[in-house]
Amino acid sequence: MREGQDALIRIEVDLNEACFGTEREISVESAVICTKCHGSGCADDVKPQMCQICKGRGETQQVTRSFIGQVMTSRPCANCQGYGSVIANPCRECAGDGRVRARQNISVKVPAGVETGNRIQMTGRGEVGPGGGPAGDLYVEIVQTPHEFLVREGNTLHLALGISMTAAALGTTISVETLDGPMPVVIKPGTQSAATVLIKGKGVTHLRGGGRGDLVVHVEVHTPTKLNKEQEELLAAFAKSRGEKEGESDMQRHDGGFFSKLFGR
């Protein structure tokens, strides 16, 4: 008997399943024990006979001469294909292989915190070996599908949140969708574009160990592009009340803050 090969199958999980874990029923086509001969490969309860060529060793040896002397080499026995035994009356169901191809349903427990590329090892659920040998392992590889709004980076989740110019200036509270359901995000008055709001413990579950990562909300302030006459006059009056003059800029000395974020230094 020989050990069977390992098998690999890929399954898709969404972000919610990857974060909290799930149980999935999968269908796998594999080599399984022949129920007719119970893995022996023989028909009518006949047992395999020892190969008379290799005397049950499964290999033959050959001695050849070379310039360094005699060299002994071993190779699988051609008579028994390396099994050490031969089947005089093979099973018709499996043709003497001791196994057949069949589809079986397997329940897979996907742990919380998995990500694309992670593999779940299921010992002994791979292919049965020739002659009814021990089965290999089944590896289930995870492929996480993209989320509509949330972007995953390790155990951290990122969410882009667009707000109006007035909401950024005055402040507001906005409900955002998280893996735990709707959650309020407080936008402080005077919030600038590219500001972030950190929500602790609302990211992805740690695969090894307890706790969860964080959710980072990235604020994008949307400047209005289509204004009617009344709105233009209101904004102009607002700028005048703040003492703003047309054409003026507010260039600032490099303090390391903005450029360190932009260029990573």
Automatic annotation (TrEMBL):
Q: Which GO terms describe its cellular component?
A: cytoplasm
One family from Pfam that matches here is: DnaJ_CXXCXGXG
Q: Which GO terms describe its biological process?
A: protein refolding
Name the InterPro entries on file: DnaJ_C (IPR002939), HSP40/DnaJ_pept-bd (IPR008971), HSP_DnaJ_Cys-rich_dom (IPR001305), HSP_DnaJ_Cys-rich_dom_sf (IPR036410)
Q: Molecular function (GO) terms listed?
A: heat shock protein binding; unfolded protein binding; zinc ion binding
Metal-binding in keyword set: yes
Q: Which UniProt keywords apply?
A: Chaperone, Metal-binding, Repeat, Zinc, Zinc-finger
- Keyword Cell cycle in the entry? The reply is no
Query: Where is each CR-type domain found?
Result: 21-103
By what name is this protein known? Unannotated protein
